[in-house]
Amino acid sequence: MSTTDDPLSWAREYTPVLQSLGDEYDDEEPLAGYTIGLATHMEAVSGCLVETLARAGAEVLFTASEPQSTHGDVVQYLDDQPGITAFVREGMSDAEFDEAQHELLEREPDFLLDDGCELIAKVHDEHPEIAKQILGGGEQTTAGITRAEAMERDGVLEFPVYSVNDTPMKHFFDNVHGTGESALVNVSITTNTVITGQTVVVAGYGYCGRGIARKARGLGAQTVVTEVEPRKALQAHMDGHRVLSMPEAAEIGDIFITSTGTRDVIRREHFEAMQDGAQLANAGHFDVEIDLDGLAEYAESVSEPREGITRYTTPDGRHLNLLADGRLVNLTGPASDGHPAEIIDTTHAMMFVAADDLLTRDHDLGPGLYAIPDRLDRQMAERKLETLDIDTDAVTEKQVAYAEDWRNEGSAF
């Protein structure tokens, strides 16, 4: 097969951690006999995760977590491989996307690996009998963890779920560097405009917002952060960003990027205050952070000056430019490929080990949301360093003793 027939060939070169896991497990196949349902953004790097799960012996059923981020060539290639079945295609409507997820769940998978809590929420809400049979799950996004936490508070979770998003190997790298870099890159590509010298308003200062703001400032932007959580607002201030309320930021921003995990962060009163030519983008999982209905109701006319940009002309003649229909700008824009492969490599590796650990080890965990074991996070960090040929120091016996003895007396120890 030529590389032109294999849409994963380039991604494999930049996912060394996933490839090492596949090489290690394809002989013993520890996941043989299990069916894993996966929902994620179906592009080439996600395809490498599907391959790795299959190499470890699992039957893999995959679908999308967002209908507009699907790469048709990747889906077709994977669907042609033994033990892998697609429940997604490029160009699906929202209704078809929803139906495909239900079709996957009706195949009664043993384990769910999720993005946005799409499958986990649906199986509990609409397929409760199937939910009772599922052995476990893993969730890789902030938005998905928020939903899973709400399910846990309501006492409806039927199986243990590993919070992959909250492990350091995910949020320190994927959220900060993956979202931060890919969001800005795709704003630039979609608009063909410069970020340097612009006022970039970042809504939300979690790990994703932190990465966007940091990298925007590195590109020479004037950065503004809006927040509702006082400690995060203070952190943004101490990191050197200007902290304003959204009504204040709306008046001065050139580029707005939302990354909060909640809805209606930018609303009618903000649209009314924005400058002509303002660009609106979303880096949160769901397309609810910008009030799209309010924007459409406010606008006098709507046009498409460039692929991936919807222009809303206001009654007073200003142009507000919405990117990627308010969906994830780094995954659904006209040239979007998502996060850099090297970053998603470690996130997907954590998803793989979450499934492997819960399915092959007897933890005796009841239903609920659990932190992924630190040993797994550390193992993936060590594996990543090996692929980068980076050495670290080793802890000495004296240092171990010093740390363990609470009576130590400094230099006299």
UniProtKB/TrEMBL annotation:
Its cofactor is NAD(+). Residues 175-336 form the S-adenosyl-L-homocysteine hydrolase NAD binding domain. GO terms for molecular function: adenosylhomocysteinase activity. GO terms for biological process: one-carbon metabolic process; S-adenosylmethionine cycle. One of its GO terms (cellular component) is cytosol. CDD domains: SAHH (cd00401). The keyword Ribosomal protein does not apply. Pfam families: AdoHcyase (PF05221), AdoHcyase_NAD (PF00670). InterPro entries: Adenosylhomocyst_ase-like_sf, Adenosylhomocysteinase-like, Ado_hCys_hydrolase_NAD-bd, NAD(P)-bd_dom_sf. NAD(+) binds at G206, Y207, C208, G209, R210, G211, E227, A283, G284, H285, N330, H339. Its EC number is 3.3.1.1. Gene3D superfamilies: Adenosylhomocysteinase-like, NAD(P)-binding Rossmann-like Domain. Binds 1 NAD(+) per subunit. Keywords: Hydrolase, NAD, One-carbon metabolism. Belongs to the adenosylhomocysteinase family. NCBIfam families: PRK05476.2-3. This is Adenosylhomocysteinase.
